[in-house]
């Protein structure tokens, strides 16, 4: 596990750099802060930034590197208010939008809407990446949905604030135009539907970018912008003042107990949860290392014991935990559905710890009605009216992914540990199924299955017996263990941030009791 963690650190460090060295130097030479510097300057000093989907776009496009999907998103505290921050990285293809960039931007807005968090857009983008326009522009959840979401959130009194720190071209011009308030940086920010080349082509008029859509024009004449900033630092200072005037009220309507450390050290998780997904471990050992005082009040401990359910607290916040201890049987599914109903009655958020191969199969189990019992659990997960958080700590295969609140079941946040695998079935099982189907088909045709045929089907690789490891959910985030001296979050603390946020439909308080030396791990959604 530590090897995977180290590999993840190395990739993360490279991703944090953003674009190429040449692009970064050119960006800085224009008097601009880098995207991550802008985020760091915006949030309250000493407060954390809960970043989403840092590995979005990783090896997604064959011939192009798109670190972090070309955009930085996450939750940060600004003037004491928890906000969604979306920052374009202009060092990556001029901040233009790839398909994954759009998806990541929309995901940040989805979190903002679910949790009623103000949005701050640090805009420095050339708009859509034209070679990819077929996958960016026409569909419902493409580029235009960004502006639709802004309008909907504004109508719901979820503040929309835009800071124009660079290009804001074509459709992208609607980000500041549709914001409740926007700031533009002098001789740096520009807002226009059509840039100088398009204006010249369409009308023959020659005009500079500054004259066409610069800060002086929009602050003194058009009125499109509300605040005039001298540079990036000044713009971020104005942003903090705007947030201070939002009049957001924080209130907690639940009893919170004093936080306690688990009795067992979190770094023991390295030995408990390994990279060999065939090796079983007791999920209670994981729970004991993330909950307050390692206290876990287990529900139906002797019934359906391949599913562990119970109540605990994380940083003082109550939570219902559902974890896997093997394949799901009918008893496990009925137990899970019952527990979910209890949490819904008591308004307690649900935490799913996934390590699941699926539901049990076989003639006897089908005769017992496992399909119907499994459907009851899946329905309970889908209909749960409390916030759900999912952490995939091992395998997540087939219908087990559904019953344990996979992405399709709308968890508020979903995390993967670096050993996690998500697919319809494991690689070995998939190969066996395909081989059986092929063998049966060949037998019906009176033919034989040989090694050459297996290779041609992709069931085996010539000269290699190495397994093909599925890498699903690339654009999603990983929650990985990390050394405490990296000043990142531990799993319990990361969950506490989300629980604090989720409890009251997310009006409020994340990061309230931030401690510099909290336990390990970095989070991404």
Please report the distance between the alpha carbons of the first and last residues: 21 Å
| Count of DSSP strands | 14
Q: State the CATH topology of the largest domain.
A: 2-enoyl-CoA Hydratase, Chain A, domain 1
Strand order of the largest sheet: 1-2-3-4-5-6-7
* Gross CATH architecture of the largest domain: Alpha-Beta Complex
Helix content: 25-40%
Topology:
Layout: H1 2-17, H2 21-29, H3 35-42, E1 49-52, E2 71-78, E3 81-88, H4 99-115, E4 119-125, H5 144-155, E5 160-168, H6 174-177, E6 181-185, H7 196-203, H8 209-213, H9 215-222, E7 227-229, H10 232-244, H11 269-272, H12 283-287, E8 297-299, E9 307-314, E10 317-324, H13 330-346, E11 350-356, H14 363-367, H15 370-383, E12 388-397, H16 398-403, E13 413-416, E14 421-423, H17 427-444, H18 451-457, H19 491-502
Parallel strand pairs: 3-4, 4-5, 5-6, 6-7, 10-11, 11-12, 12-13, 12-14
Antiparallel strand pairs: 1-2, 2-3, 8-9, 9-10
Helix pairs in contact: 4-5, 13-15
Verbal overview:
The protein has 525 residues and is α/β, with parallel strands linked by helices. It has 3 domains: 243 residues, 2-enoyl-CoA Hydratase, Chain A, domain 1 (Alpha-Beta Complex), CATH 3.90.226.10; 192 residues, 2-enoyl-CoA Hydratase, Chain A, domain 1 (Alpha-Beta Complex); 43 residues. 36% of the residues lie in helices and 17% in strands. It has a 7-stranded mixed sheet with strand order 1-2-3-4-5-6-7, with helices on both faces. Strands 8, 9, 10, 11, 12, 13 and 14 form a 7-stranded mixed sheet that branches. A hairpin with a 2-residue loop joins strand 9 and strand 10. Helix 4 runs parallel beside helix 5 and helix 13 runs parallel beside helix 15. The radius of gyration is 25 Å and the shape is globular. The two termini are 21 Å apart.
